[in-house]
Design a protein that fits this description.
Largest sheet: 9 strands, antiparallel
Number of helices: 6
Strand content: 15-25%
CATH superfamily: HIT-like
Number of domains: 1
CATH topology: HIT family, subunit A
Helix content: 10-25%
Bound molecules: zinc ion
CATH architecture: 2-Layer Sandwich
CATH class: Alpha Beta
């Protein structure tokens, strides 16, 4: 297989293909660092609805929190079930009621910080908060899935720079984790082993797509990556959810999340935008032994702070396509310093 020629790669987690056109990226690295004034935000912003002590639009005043802070989203996309459940519709107009809960998790009272700038203990506290919330929401009657995710940067539609993430708990397993669960179960049935256990072991042996690794977690650009600097974090041990992590694994996860996000920020010397989220076991009453805990980072930027990848044309109508290979993207991220550019 000649990876210098156009080829397609299979995403083993979803069954989708991605078209890779490496000959188009054979020109020298065109990524540019546009020297911009380092944006220093205030530690406290009186107009921010996430800062401690501030009033939110529904009149609630945030407590003077000192670590993480969790509250129900004031403009939730999902609502808890109320009274009789509506009836589902089948046939040409298939639909069913969906209930759930949306929460916001602030990482820190400090308005000016982002995850890569937090101390490792603070990131560990964030992970423990996500874990507690996953257990609490997953234990709520009618909830089958808990999606922990972070939307970072205005480019990703995140209007407030205050460091925070969201958790949406739903009555059904959403599309992406449902597809991945099917693929992981199918692999376990046909191979007798776990897909991501085998995959992470093979990637650690090869090394060419590894971005960062420690004893507990591996960060890599997946072989089938679609976004230019897409990264996947995979637990080295077979574990299905955040709640199963040992204290050592929580530290390992915090460490690798910081390393990846520091390298991201250093790529174009900006606060690197992305959507990231965890995929873990659903709460559907099944064992889901095939599910292997991991997180996806989907960053939109391609060549500079301003040049983003769009999924249009052929990609919208046929299939995703990329020029820079997963191997080149991983090498580029590995070249980045482990020290945040703001701290230099
Ligand atoms: Zn704030
Ligand atoms: Zn596994
Ligand atoms: Zn996944």
């Amino acid at each position: 297989m000649n990876f210098d020629r156009p080829h397609r790669r299979l995403n083993l987690l979803t069954g989708d293909w991605v078209l890779v056109s490496p000959h188009r990226a054979r020109r020298p690295w065109l990524g540019q660092v546009e020297k911009m004034p380092v944006d220093r935000l205030p530690v406290y912003d009186p107009t921010c609805y996430l800062c401690p002590g501030n009033r939110r639009s529904n009149g609630t005043v945030n407590p003077p929190y000192t670590q993480t802070f969790v509250f129900d989203n004031d403009f939730a996309s999902l609502l808890p079930q109320e009274g009789e459940e509506e009836t589902a519709q089948s046939g040409l107009f298939t639909s069913e009621p969906e209930s759930g809960l949306c929460r916001v998790v602030c990482f820190s009272p400090d308005h000016s910080l982002t995850l890569p700038e937090l101390a490792q203990e603070q990131v560990e506290t964030v992970i423990r908060t996500w874990t507690e919330q996953t257990m609490e929401l997953g234990g709520t009657p009618g909830i089958q899935y808990v999606q922990v995710f972070e939307n970072k940067g205005a480019m990703m539609g995140c209007s407030n720079p205050h460091p925070h993430s969201q958790i949406w708990a739903t009555g059904h397993i959403p599309n992406e984790p449902a597809k991945e669960l099917v693929c992981q179960e199918e692999y376990l049935r046909s191979h007798g082993t776990c897909l991501l256990c085998d995959y992470v072991k093979a990637e650690r042996e090869k090394g060419e797509r590894i971005v960062a690794q420690n004893e507990r977690f591996t960060a890599l650009v997946p072989f089938w990556a679609v976004w230019p600097f897409e990264v996947m974090l995979v637990a080295n041990r077979h574990t299905g959810s955040l709640a199963d992590l040992t204290p050592g694994e929580v530290s390992g996860l915090a460490d690798i999340m910081q390393e990846v996000t520091v390298r991201y920020d250093n790529l174009f010397e900006i606060s690197f935008p992305y959507s990231m989220g965890f995929h873990q076991k659903p709460f559907d009453g099944k064992a889901n032994a095939a599910q292997h805990l991991h997180a996806h980072y989907y960053p939109p930027l391609l060549r500079s702070a301003a040049v983003r990848k769009f999924m249009v044309g052929f990609e919208m109508l046929s299939m995703p396509q990329r020029d820079i290979t997963a191997e080149l993207a991983a090498a580029r991220l590995r070249e980045m310093a482990w020290v945040h550019y703001k701290a230099r």
